[in-house]
Specification:
mainly alpha, Frizzled cysteine-rich domain, two-stranded antiparallel ribbon, 4 helices, globular, disordered C terminus, Corin, serine peptidase, disulfide bond, Frizzled_dom, Frizzled/SFRP, Wnt receptor activity
């Protein structure tokens, strides 16, 4: 499926698997992206919209006959949480359970050269977060 949502045009890829990821399927997409837009307006983490969009529309990875969504790396989640959790606390809100960073994989978990998670620095040829 092609990504057409205007708030997620910064993604460095253009297709995502269908059906969409369960994290977002349980919520309304607009509410999910509004949450990240709110955090983006608070400027709590420079890549917060990229994190939200990579969850809402994970990159489609085709591996032979199999295809799957490439979810954000745990370190990417932890950086977003570290930046935004204190801001959320100011409005009596905490980092949501559905974004628990332990559910994501670390880029170091696999000796395989294929990417197992998404991080913003991978696109620039720099070290992942």
């Amino acid at each position: 499926m092609n990504i057409t949502h205007s708030q997620c045009q910064m993604l460095p890829y253009h297709s995502t698997p269908t059906p969409l990821l369960s994290v977002v399927r349980n919520m309304e997409m607009e509410k999910f992206l509004k949450f990240f837009t709110y955090l983006h307006r608070l400027s709590c983490y420079q890549h917060i919209m990229l994190f939200g969009c990579s969850l809402a529309f994970p990159e489609c990875i085709i591996d032979g006959d199999d295809s799957h969504g490439l979810l954000p790396c745990r370190s990417f989640c932890e950086a977003a949480k570290e930046g935004c959790e204190s801001v959320l606390g100011m409005v009596n809100y905490s980092w949501p359970d559905f974004l628990k960073c332990s559910q994501f994989r670390n880029h170091t978990e696999s000796s395989d050269v294929s990417r197992i998670c998404f991080s913003p620095q991978q696109e620039n040829g720099k070290q992942p977060l």
